[in-house]
Specification:
Elements: H1 12-15, H2 21-37, H3 47-80, E1 83-85, E2 91-93, H4 94-123, H5 133-143, H6 147-156, E3 160-161, E4 164-165, H7 169-190, H8 200-207
Antiparallel strand pairs: 1-2, 3-4
Helix pairs in contact: 2-3, 5-7
Length: 219
């Protein structure tokens, strides 16, 4: 892409000091034409001398500009993929556009999925994990636990496990059974063992009662 300008440096003031206004006008017009088309106009006056070194600066700046543009295109090509030039001599980065379009599609899909899940949650009945009493009673009999005790407990807390709604009431029944079994085992271990003694003196001392002596000859 050609540049739409050329650089006019402050040092030109000193170099053009001896030129008249007319010569400066012809010089400036010639520089504009050269920058736009690359064709050097014909100059016959003193401005032709200034034109030569100013045109050389234009060529140098244009070459540096083209190198920068070429490097930028290469960098973009490496990062985003192939480049397709269009009729305006600009660059359209197809892969980049495809990625952006893909991102938009992904955002739409995520938004749609979130909406579906939100709708599903809103349409879900309350206490989804709550069974009927008959269902609970049948399953509790299979597990060997008291259905009425479990029913009363969870009816009082809204059929929640901690702070969350109950999801699997059968798992709750099984956990209830395990807790009961663990509690019974611990209680059994805590019960003191009774020690029986056949020490007659200890028995008399503990009960404040003396075994009568047997008659002589008996025993």
């Amino acid at each position: 892409m050609a540049r739409e300008y050329f650089c006019a440096y402050h040092s030109y003031l000193k170099q053009c000091k001896g030129l008249s206004d007319g010569e400066l006008g012809r010089l400036f017009r010639a520089l504009l034409e050269y920058s736009a088309s690359g064709a050097a106009p014909e100059l016959n006056g003193r401005e032709s001398v200034a034109f030569d070194f100013m045109a050389a600066n234009i060529d140098r700046d244009a070459e540096a500009y083209e190198k920068t543009c070429s490097q930028n295109r290469e960098n973009v090509s490496k990062r985003y993929g192939r480049i397709r030039p269009n009729t305006n001599n600009t660059s359209v980065y197809e892969s980049y556009q495809e990625k952006e379009e893909g991102k938009e599609e992904l955002k739409k899909d995520i938004s749609s999925e979130i909406s579906k899940k939100s709708a599903a949650r809103s349409s879900r009945p309350k206490n989804e994990g709550k069974p009927s009493y008959e269902e609970l009673e049948v399953y509790c009999k299979e597990q060997g636990v008291d259905a009425s005790e479990i029913w009363d407990y969870y009816e009082s807390n809204g059929w929640r496990v901690g702070k969350n709604p109950m999801k699997d009431w059968k798992a709750v029944v099984r956990n209830w059974k395990r807790r009961q079994f663990s509690g019974a085992s611990a209680k059994k271990q805590e019960e003191p063992q009774k020690n029986y003694s056949f020490d007659l003196e200890a028995f008399e001392r503990d009960h404040k009662w003396r075994v009568p002596d047997l008659p002589e000859g008996e025993g």
